[in-house]
UniProtKB/TrEMBL annotation:
GO terms for molecular function: DNA binding. It holds the Pfam family Response_reg. Residues 4-122 form the Response regulatory domain. SUPFAM superfamilies: C-terminal effector domain of the bipartite response regulators, CheY-like. CDD domains: LuxR_C_like, REC_NarL-like. The modification 4-aspartylphosphate is found at residue 55. Residues 150-215 form the HTH luxR-type domain. One of its GO terms (biological process) is phosphorelay signal transduction system. Keywords: DNA-binding, Phosphoprotein, Transcription, Transcription regulation. Transmembrane segments: none annotated. This is Two component transcriptional regulator, LuxR family. The keyword Transferase does not apply. It comes from the Bacteria.
Amino acid sequence: MTVTVLIADDQAVVRAGLAMLVDSQSGLEVVGQAADGLQAVRLAAELVPDVVLMDIRMPLMDGLQATRRITSRDGGARTRVVILTTYDLDEYVFDALRAGARGFLLKHAPPEELLRGIHAAVDGGALLVPTVTIRLIEAFTACRPRPVRRPPALALLTPREHEVFDLVVAGRTNSEISRTLAIAETTVKTHIGHVLAKLSLRDRVHAVIFAYEHGLVAPSPPPR
């Protein structure tokens, strides 16, 4: 099955480079390109791509607003938005994840990481890069009010589900969780599905956000 991709970025050279990378891969196809947020929303509605690679700062409508509009149609079930960012846009990334994005990619990331992010979104997950994603969420939840008590929904998790949840929050992949707990990857996926359902979370990214917002992980000082 071919995975269709819409690229939204106001820089033509960036769009061209991403399109060349995506189209060079078997099973991936660029079906459209947008130079601003409004065009991204319109093309997403017309083309219904599997994934939108979304820049943050664009004219007419920024990537954050465009992400909200696209994901609000069906909760992001059909078209998944993956944010393209650079370090100086970190504050917007957190809000984009809250708006329904399925993760984010750094524009200067290696090609294989960009492709991995696309496939992760299609598979219903999200690209969680421990060295970047966790640091971002730590930095931008550190200034938010910390809850006084643990959320009641945590009591619904079994001991094994708690272990899996903690490893997801730590940014571990399914294969890493499998090795750590000495269980099959299919079992890991089952446990993650149960955790997300019991905590009413959309995906792994929101599991991490949930942990930081509810004080389950103590944020470290933002990087200098």
